[in-house]
Amino acid sequence: MDPVQVLELGLDMKNQYYMAMDVDATECRAMERDNRGFRSRGLTLHSDEAMDQVDGTTRVGAGFIIRRSNGGFLCAAGRKMQCCASVEEAELRALVWALVYCDKEHIILTNIYLDNQWINCQAIDFCPRETNRTAHWIAQTAKRMVDEMIEWKDLSELPVLIQKAVDNDRNMFLSQEG
């Protein structure tokens, strides 16, 4: 997929978000501009991808975590993805997969965070990698999995390394939200 196709995918995703929210794009941009300093305290999605090459084969994984308004754990999932032409494409594919998951589980999000500043969409907020480690660790785990997908709905089921990232991310994210 070339960069133009990735951008078109991102714009289509943005338009679908506006349609799902039943708000026209002009009204949505005005609301976002007026409320830049306001953070709703509902469910938040942190999504990420991980990509590397091993013996000439590209491995790609997607991961996300959904947090409650207090930063607590709601659920998380990871999955293998097909090879992507760029990090941006992988990031967008990971996000689309996470949003489809939320739709199937009837999870209504108030905030979406990515650690990729290249994706410029008013509906998505940038967060530093330090506050997105859980999603990144899940994506790292997913690209090495035998199974296609794994999900966790209980914090105690997470691997210890990811549990530590959940706690660390929560503390850092809440301190930045102030």
From TrEMBL:
Secretion signal, residue range per the UniProt entry: none
GO MF, one annotated term: nucleic acid binding
Domain RNase H type-1 as annotated: residue spans: 57-117
Pfam families found in the cross-reference section: RVT_3
Protein name, entry field: RNase H type-1 domain-containing protein
Organism: Theobroma cacao (Cacao)
